[in-house]
Fold this sequence. Notes:
The complex is a heterodimer of chains A (312) and B (297).
Chain A: H1 2-21, H2 28-51, H3 62-78, H4 83-105, H5 110-130, H6 132-135, E1 141-142, H7 153-176, H8 178-188, H9 190-195, H10 200-226, E2 228-229, H11 236-249, H12 256-272, H13 278-292, H14 296-310
Antiparallel strand pairs in A: 1-2
Helix pairs in contact in A: 2-7, 2-10, 2-11, 2-12, 3-4, 3-5, 3-10, 4-5, 4-10, 7-8, 7-10, 8-10, 11-12, 11-14
Chain B: H1 6-37, H2 44-62, H3 68-90, H4 100-122, E1 138-141, E2 144-147, H5 148-170, H6 172-182, H7 184-189, H8 194-216, H9 226-241, H10 246-266, H11 271-285
Antiparallel strand pairs in B: 1-2
Helix pairs in contact in B: 1-5, 1-8, 1-9, 1-10, 2-3, 2-4, 2-8, 2-9, 3-8, 5-6, 9-10, 9-11, 10-11
Amino acid sequence: MSGRNWLWLPILCLVLLLVALVPLTESRYAVFLGTDILIHGLFAVSLNLLLGYTGLVSFGQAAYFGIGAYTCALLMKKAALNFALAFAAAGVFGALSALLFGFFCVRLTKIYFAMLTLAFSQIVWVIAFKWNSLTGGDNGFVGVPFPQNLDSAVRFYYFTLAVVVVSLVLIRQALISPFGRILTTIRENPERTEFIGINVKLFQLIAFMISGFFSALAGALFGIFNHSVFPDILFWPASAEVLIMTILGGMYSFLGPVVGAGVLLYLRMQVASYTEYWPLILGLILASLLFFFPGGIVGFIQDRLGRLRRKP
Amino acid sequence: MNLPDPSFLIIQSLNGLTYAMFLFLIASGLSLIFGVMGVLNFAHGSLYMLGAYLTHQFVSWFIDAPGYFWWAVLLASLGVAALGAFIERFFLRHLYIREELNQLLFTYALVLILSDVAKLIWGTDQFSVSRPAILKGAVEILGQYFPKYNIVIIFLGPLVALLFWFILLRTRWGRTIRAAALDRETLGALGVNVNRLFTVVFFIGAWLAGLGGALVSPISAIVPGMDVEVIINAFIVVVIGGMGSFWGTFLGALILGQVYSLGILILPRLSMVFIYILMVLVLIIRPWGLLGRPMQR
C-alpha cells in the first residue's frame, strides 16, 4: 500500500498543478469545459460513494443535484440571499431531502432500491416541471446572478476547483476512516455486517445523506455556472448519465468517476461539432465498455500496471 | 367545483381504458422478461417505438394491398420480436453472469442507440398511420362519440391477457417458463435448454412491446421521444402491479390509465405527481407490488 501511495502522490500533485494552470491557456473553451468537468466530477464521486463504496445503485441521483441547483438559484434570485449562504443552504437542503427519501429507500434492496430512488427523483422533477410560478417550469429558471467576486469565468473556475478539491478530500477522508470501512463491508455482504452488530440501514442512510449533500453542492455550482436551471437536470436520463460517467471512469477507484466525467464531457463537446448523433455514440461507448472494460478506464489502467509490476 | 357531464366522464374513462391496454401490452412484456430473467429492460420503450415506426413503414409500402394495416401490424411486431431475440442471443446473454447493474446499463445503451437509429432512418418528422377502413368512424355512447378503433383495442387487451394467462398457466411451455423464473439451474439440470428458453421469452416480450407500438400508431403521433415517455409509465405499471406478476400488470395498467384520464380533469397539473406518489407508496408498503409475491431478488 505505502509503495503505491508513494508513486501516486507526485502524479496526483502534477495533475492538480496542470488543472490549476488551465486558465493560463486563456482559452474560454478550456475554462468552460474544465469547470463543467470539475462540477460533474464531484457529482459522479458523490454518486460513487453509494455505488462503488456502499453497493447501492441509486437511479435518482439527479434529484439531489437538481435540488441543490434550484435551492441556490432561487435563494439568490428570489430571496436575494448572498451566495455563501445560498450555497451552504443548497448543501444542507440536499442532505435533508436525501435523509427524507433515503429513510424509505434504504429499507429496500437492489432493484427495489433503484426503483424507489427513481420514483422520488421523478416526483422532484414533476414539481420543478409543473410549478411554473416558482421554478419557471419548462422554460427554466433563468437569470441566476453571478455571485460578487466570482464574476469572471476564470474566477469561477478557481472557486469551483477549490470547492471540488476540498469536497473530494473530505469524501476521501470519510472513506478511509472506520466509517468508510464499514460502508465497504456493507457492500461486500450486508447480512454478515448486520451479524457483527452494525446497524446497516443507519450507515446506508448516512452514506445517502453525505452523497446527497455533495451532489447538491455540485448542482448549486452548476446552476451558477449556467446562469440558469432547467428541469431537464432532474429528469431520469440525467441520473443515467452520471451513472455512465462513474462506470466509464471506474467505480472501484476513488478518482475514477472524475476521469469518467472528464472523458465523457470532452467527447461530447468534440462529437457535437461533427454530428448531432451523440446519444448513438454514447450508447456504443457504454455497450463496448460493459463488454470489454468492465472496470472502466481507471480499472483498465490499474490492471495493466499491476501486470507490468508483477513481471520480473 | 363544477362536476363535469357524466357522459363526458364515461368517455374520458374509456379513453383511459384504451391507454391502459397499450400500457398493459408493453408492461406485460417488461414484467415477463423481468420475472423470468431478472433483467429490467430499459429498451422496452424503444422496442415499442420501433413497432410504431415499422408499422408506418409497412403501411406506406403496402397501402394498396387488402387488409394492409393488419399485415403491417403483424410484420412490424414480428420484426421487433426478432430484434429482441437477436439482442438477447448475441449481447445480453453474455452479461447474465455479471451484476444486475451491467444488464441495466446495457439496456440503457440500447435506448440511446435505438433512438438515434430511428432518427437516422425516419428523421425527426412526426408520422401518423390512418385507421383501417372497417374501423373508421365512431360509436355513439350516451350522446358522445367514441372511435370504433379504440373499442377494438379495449377488447383486444384482455384477449391478449387471457391468451397469455392460458399459455403461462395451462401449457407445458408456460410451466417451463414459470420454472425458469424460480430456479434456472435446476431446470437446466432437468434437461431443458434454458438458453433457448430465454431467447424465446425475450422474443415474446419484445413482440408484446412491438404489438403495442404497432397498434398505437393510428391513434397517437409517431415521434422521437415516445420511447422515453412510455418506458417510465411501463415501469410504474410493473412496480404497482408487482414485478413478474401477470394479473398485477393488468391491474397496474388499469389504475394508471384511469388516474391519467380522470386525474387530468380534476387536477391537471398534479395527475403525474399522483402516479409517482402511488409508485412510492407501493414500494414503501408492498415493494413486491399489489398482486406480486415477495421474492429473493
